[in-house]
Structures are given as structure tokens and as C-alpha cells.
Write a structure and sequence with these properties.
heterodimer, A: 435 residues, alpha/beta, D-Maltodextrin-Binding Protein, domain 2, six-stranded mixed β-sheet, five-stranded mixed β-sheet, 12% strand, B: MetI-like fold, two-stranded antiparallel sheet, transmembrane helix (chain B), cell membrane (chain B), Sugar ABC transporter permease (chain B), transport (chain B), MetI-like_sf (chain B)
């Protein structure tokens, strides 16, 4: 009992200290600008250590001395990053440099004149202009103008599968929709759910529609929506994709309880690793998730392939959907633009790319393929890099590409379609109503 | 002695700190939110006046009506579930049985956990592949609804049990002794003595429950995210979604203002209906 209470006491005082330290940090954050220190906001997950290293390296570099400035990295923890960034950007303590998802996630900042247009900077700077894969730079752009510099790994959505289950039932990774349906039939007969799906999070459901619309109608269908024309949802490809989703759900392709399964708490990845489901459509981070939770499975049994073609569809099998990467953007009100831009340049360096690779990411830098052998899983890293580099089109995840106020109702409609609370026709009609 | 005349009646200025505190942290933000509800604001730059647009949208787009229906249903079912369980447990816990103290302490544990921890725990337990409840609980409307009622009850019944336990202990023993002499059975004693004597306790507990239900939020956010579809999107969740997911702070402020008015009206009404405000003693005529 004594140890318990002592531990409790220690825990309580640590908490108190941490929050006190947090308060102090906040307090000094507002006034810390006069000495030329810029603030950078980053999504504070495990991967942020790469950015932390880059910042400290930059602060002791010649570039920092030349521009008479330095950076202070603020890690904003948790999924509430977008809300915290929004609040900060509306206040006098806005960051100078900030992490974002490109596309719709930065639209409001552009409209408020708070985000620096980097199109000409990138075009006039060989380090930035030639440093990154063009499809990735373009995917985060808005109306043809570039506002961000790639700063993390690429996140294409990939069809993962359980090699052991496939071998047991004589299946091949599906290249066409018919093969996929054929696989489904065989798997269901064997009592295995064809696809794991974390429907409770909704965004894994969205991935299915993103790929189906691309394969059926090509990347132009969503491009039209992304560029601000909601009538683009009326394209026949969207209706066809929605009907296909209903067929898959009714057919039991995702099992019965998919909307109670989450990705975020590990439910869906566990279903794949434990052989309850044979395939899983998920972002490339599925690999590191499996490696963390089921390392043996990830190394020996995890397979991957592109999303199959749809018969008669207009989309190329090489087209990719997902998050191209994350971007650094610069606040127009920054006190030291030169320092900010000098820091962005370091993200095109080989040193930075190497650190991303060591963290299990595949950077969007142009020369990254030469460095991929150092990855914890070179085979997967090379597959992913080639996939993105050779993609004729990289469609940004819909919920990141559209305005935040359209993204929430859109996700609600996707959820209704999957759980059978809406028909494909009603789904299309509801999407057309979105702003 | 001049002190005696003013005893129990401190100078009004003593209330000043509390009034200032309340004004600064409660009234001012409320007024601000009410003002924001007449603007369009995405969190950046200056709010632009929008007249009655948000209120018009709120009252006509059907979201409010749907959400209100879910909120009312959740409140009514939760209150019925929690009151029944807390009343029985509380009366039992007030008794002299052996091990009662230990068990009461165990029952109280869920209340000590944070809502977030409780929600995450049940989220894992409800996983169809690896949880303890088979089937698609959170994916069906009734399943998600009952899960919210159950998880809310699991967490808050201990608190209300404590209130009922305190209430039950205040009931004079002589009443039971007299009833026993008259030959009243256990059930009869419960119905004719315990229940009426707990009238004020029930009113307190009920007001707390109703106001609590109206601000029920974390559990919905974590367990169902308002789903499936919008079937469990209660008002506070709708407000969160409008404000911090869609960045439509004007609309979110309109919902918040509505919620303040609704909650205040409802609790005043409850106090009135239950006669709690009159503070009529349960010992009248004794």
C-alpha cells in the first residue's frame, strides 16, 4: 500500500510539473519572437523526432546564421492537430511554419491570406524545384499554386493481403475486379472474411470509394470536385462506385460487424494478422503498424499489391490514391521569411531523407530510390516508391482535398452508405448538396 | 453586542470575487458565443455578420430536430436505467449487511475513472472480432444507443448510488420499527416509507442526471462518433462537429446557445415539477 501511494504521489507531482512546464512554455511562446526565433508546428507523433533532429541541425547550420534566425519546434500531440492549428492561426501566436495535409486542409488559410504562395519560390530554386517527386508536389497544390514542401513519408493506399491464407486457398493478388470477386467467393466458402475494414473510423471506408471512382471513371472525376464543382459528384462513376460498395457489403465482403471495428485501436490490423480476414485496403502505414504489433506476420506473411482494375473502367491500375505526404507551409506574417525558406530547403537533403527512411518512411524526394536499401524493409519501400513515382495520377484523400466543412458531412454520407442507411442514389444526391 | 445583529448576513461585497469569477468565466463566454451565433466565422480573421442565417439553418435544416430527438431519448432511457439501479443499490448500501462497506467501495470505482478511459475500455470490449460482445453492436442504431446508455450508466450509477445511500441513511429508524409492529412486509416498507422519504434525494439526483445527459460528450465522441450515420449525434456532439471539424463556429455557437437555454429551462422545470424548490420537508407531520 505504501509503494502504491508513493507511486501515486510521484505520478501526481510529475503531472503537475509537466502541466506547469507546459504553461510556462506557452507563456514564453508569445514573447519569444523578438530574438528572431521562428515557431514551427508539427503533428506530434512518433515520426516528429525526425523533424526535431532537422530543426536542431538547422539551428546550428550556416544557413541559420546567414539569415539571422533559428527555429523552435512545437509538437502538437494527438488527433486534434487541425483544430489546434486553426485556433493558433486565428490568434496573435500563430506559428511561422506549420505541418499540414495540403489541398482542402489549407484552403481556409489561403482564403484568409495567411499562407505563402511558394509556386515561384519552388520554380526559381533548384534545390526545391528538382528535389521532390512532381506528382507529390502537385497533389498538395490548390488551383495549380503550390503552398507546401513535402516533409514526411509518402502514404499511398495499398491492398495488403495475408500470403499464408492466399497460399492455403490457391489465391492470387487480384489484378482485375473479377479476380477480386472470385477470391471473395472462395474465401467466404472457407469461412474467412475477404476484407478487414475499420468501419468505425469511417475514413477506411472512404478509401474504397476513392479507388473505385478512380478505377471506374479515372482521376478527372474527383479532380472536378476538388477544384470546387460539387456537380462533379453527379458523374456516373460515383453512382457506379456506390453501387459496387453496396454489392460488396451485401455480399459480406467486409464481414458482418465491420462498423464496430476500428483501425485506430488495432481491430482491423489484428483481423488481418490473425487470419480472420484475408485482405486489407489501407494506407502504407499499415506496414509499420503490423511491424509494431505483429512483427513475425509483417516480415513473413504480409503481401501487398495495387488496387485492381475495374472492367470497362477508365482508370489506370497505376493511379494512386492516399496522402502523398505531409507538407510544411509558411505563414505570410512570418517575421523572417529567409530563415523559414532556408529551413524548408533542408527537407530536400539526403541527410533528411535518410532519417525518414530509417524511421520506416519513404520520402518524396527525387533521389530517394538510391537510399531505400537502408530501409527496415527495402522490398516494401521500393514497391511504394516505384508506385508513387510511376503513378500517372495521385489523388489526395477526399477528406483532405475538400473543404473541412464539406468533409464532415461527406464522411457521414459514406458511413450511411456502408451501414445501409442510404442508397447509392441518395448518396450521390447528398454529395451534390455539399458546399 | 453589535455583532449579533448582523450575524449570518455578510456584506454583499464578500460575494464580489465569486461574482467576478462567474462573470468572467461563465457569463462573458456565453454572451460571446451568443454574439458569434449571428456571424460566419471559420476561426481565421474577423467574424463576418450573418444575421439570422445560422439560427435559420439550425431551425430548418432538420439536424437540430433529429439531434434533439436522440438527446431526449438518450436522456429519458439513461435516467430510467440509472435511477432504478442507483435507487436499489443505494438503499441496499445504506443497510447494515456484512461486507456492505467493501462492496460499496468496489461499486464506486467506475466513477473514479475518466470518461475517456471508460469509453476506450468499452470500445475494445465491443470489438466484433476480439471483444467480449459478439456482433455489430456499434454499427446498428439500437446497439449503439444501448451501448451509450450502458456505458454512461456503468460510469455514473455509482455516483447516484452514493446520493441515494446518503438519503436512505437519513430516514429515521422509528418509521421502520412502527411499520414492522403494524405488520408491514419488506416490500410494503420500501414502497410506503423508503420511496416517499427519498423524494428530495430523487429530485437532486434527477436534475444532475438530466443536466449531465445534456452535456454527455466524450463517450459519444469515442464510442460512436455520432454514428451509425447520424443516429447517435446528440446536441453536444453536433456542436463539436460543427465547431472543431467543420470550423463553422457561427453555427456551433447557435447550437451552444440553444443548449444553454434548453438546459436551463429544463432544470428549472424539473425543480418546479418535483417540488424540490419549495424544500418541503419529508418529516412533515412527524
Amino acid at each position: 500500500m505504501e509503494t502504491y501511494s508513493r507511486r501515486w504521489f510521484l505520478g501526481a507531482s510529475t503531472t503537475a510539473l509537466v502541466s506547469a512546464a507546459g504553461l510556462t512554455a506557452c507563456g514564453s511562446g508569445g514573447s519569444g519572437g523578438s530574438d528572431g526565433t521562428l515557431t514551427a508546428f508539427v503533428y506530434g507523433d512518433d515520426a516528429a523526432k525526425v523533424q526535431a533532429k532537422a530543426v536542431s541541425r538547422f539551428n546550428s547550420s550556416a544557413a541559420a546564421r546567414e539569415t539571422k534566425g533559428s527555429l523552435r519546434l512545437e509538437k502538437v500531440p494527438g488527433a486534434e492537430y487541425p483544430a489546434k492549428l486553426r485556433t493558433a492561426m486565428g490568434s496573435p501566436n500563430a506559428p511561422d511554419v506549420f505541418f499540414n495535409w495540403g489541398g482542402g486542409s489549407i484552403k481556409a488559410y489561403r482564403e484568409a491570406g495567411q499562407i505563402l504562395d511558394l509556386t515561384d519560390v519552388i520554380a526559381g530554386d533548384p534545390v526545391l524545384g528538382d528535389g521532390f517527386l512532381p506528382s507529390v508536389l502537385d497533389a498538395g497544390a490548390l488551383g495549380g499554386r503550390k503552398y507546401g514542401i513535402p516533409m514526411r513519408g509518402m502514404q499511398p493506399v495499398i491492398l495488403f493481403y495475408n500470403k499464408t491464407l492466399f497460399a492455403e486457398h490457391g489465391l492470387k493478388p487480384p489484378a482485375t475486379w473479377d479476380q477480386l470477386l472470385d477470391n471473395n467467393a472462395k474465401l467466404k466458402k472457407a469461412g474467412i472474411t475477404p476484407f478487414a475494414l475499420g468501419g468505425a473510423d469511417i475514413w477506411p471506408e472512404l478509401m474504397w470509394l476513392e479507388y473505385l471512382v478512380d478505377r471506374i471513371g479515372g482521376p478527372k472525376v474527383f479532380d472536378r470536385v476538388k477544384n470546387g464543382d460539387p456537380a462533379g459528384w453527379g458523374d456516373p462513376a460515383v453512382l457506379k462506385a456506390a453501387r459496387t460498395v453496396r454489392e460488396l457489403v451485401d455480399d459480406g465482403a467486409f464481414g458482418k460487424g465491420f462498423s464496430s471495428v476500428a483501425y485506430t485501436n488495432g481491430g482491423a490490423p489484428a483481423a488481418l494478422a490473425k487470419g480472420k480476414a484475408a485482405m486489407h485496403l489501407m494506407g502504407s502505414w499499415e506496414y509499420s503498424t503490423q511491424l509494431g504489433k505483429f512483427p513475425d506476420f509483417a516480415r513473413k506473411q504480409l503481401g501487398w499489391c495495387p488496387f485492381p482494375t475495374f472492367d470497362g473502367g477508365a482508370g489506370d491500375i497505376r493511379n494512386v490514391v492516399g496522402n502523398p505526404t505531409n507538407y510544411w507551409s509558411v505563414n505570410t506574417r512570418t517575421r523572417n521569411k529567409d530563415t523559414a525558406l532556408a529551413f524548408l530547403r533542408t527537407c530536400a537533403s539526403d541527410t533528411y531523407a535518410r532519417e525518414l527512411i530509417a524511421n520506416g518512411d519513404v520520402p518524396a524526394t527525387a533521389g530517394a530510390d538510391k537510399l531505400l536499401d537502408a530501409s527496415p524493409s527495402p522490398e516494401f519501400a521500393r514497391f511504394q516508391y516505384r508506385m508513387v513515382r510511376e503513378a500517372p495520377a495521385f489523388t489526395l484523400s477526399w477528406d483532405q482535398a475538400v473543404d473541412p466543412d464539406a468533409a464532415t458531412p461527406m464522411l457521414t454520407e459514406v458511413n450511411k452508405l456502408f451501414v445501409g442507411k442510404s442508397s447509392p442514389e441518395r448518396f450521390v444526391a447528398a454529395l451534390k448538396e455539399l458546399k | 453586542m453589535s455583532h449579533q445583529r448582523g450575524a449570518g448576513r455578510p456584506h454583499p461585497s464578500w460575494a464580489l470575487p465569486a461574482v467576478l469569477f462567474f462573470g468572467f468565466f461563465a457569463l462573458a463566454p456565453m454572451a460571446l458565443a451568443f454574439g458569434l451565433s449571428f456571424t460566419t466565422w471559420n476561426g481565421l480573421g474577423e467574424p463576418r455578420p450573418a444575421g439570422l442565417a445560422n439560427w435559420h439553418a439550425l431551425l430548418t435544416d432538420g439536424r437540430l430536430a433529429r439531434s434533439l430527438a436522440v438527446t431526449v431519448a438518450l436522456t429519458v432511457v439513461s435516467c430510467a436505467f440509472q435511477t432504478t439501479a442507483a435507487l436499489l443499490l443505494g438503499v441496499w448500501a445504506a443497510g447494515p449487511q456484512r461486507n456492505r462497506a467493501v462492496l460499496s467501495a468496489v461499486f464506486f470505482v467506475p466513477f473514479l475513472l475518466s470518461s475517456t478511459a471508460v469509453s476506450l475500455l468499452f470500445y475494445a470490449l465491443l470489438d466484433p472480432n476480439f471483444g467480449i460482445v459478439p456482433g455489430d453492436t456499434l454499427g446498428t442504431t439500437s446497439g449503439a444507443f444501448l451501448a451509450l446508455v450502458f456505458v454512461g450508466g456503468w460510469q455514473f450509477i455509482p455516483f447516484h448510488t452514493l446520493i441515494y445511500q446518503g438519503g436512505a441513511r437519513q430516514i429515521p429508524e422509528v418509521l421502520y420499527q412502527a411499520a414492522a409492529i403494524d405488520g408491514a412486509g419488506r416490500l410494503r416498507r420500501f414502497r410506503s416509507i423508503t420511496l416517499p422519504q427519498l423524494r428530495n434525494t430523487a429530485a437532486t439526483s434527477l436534475v444532475l442526471m438530466v443536466v449531465g445527459s445534456l452535456t454527455y460528450f466524450e463517450t459519444v465522441l469515442i464510442l460512436t462518433q455520432g454514428g451509425p450515420g447520424t443516429d447517435t449525434a446528440i446536441l453536444p456532439y453536433l456542436m463539436y462537429e460543427a465547431g472543431f471539424k467543420s470550423y463553422d463556429f457561427g453555427y456551433a455557437s447557435a447550437i451552444a446557445s440553444f443548449l444553454v437555454v434548453a438546459a436551463t429551462t429544463l432544470s428549472l422545470l424539473l425543480v418546479r415539477v418535483t417540488g424540490f424548490g419549495a424544500m418541503r420537508s419529508t418529516r412533515e407531520g412527524m
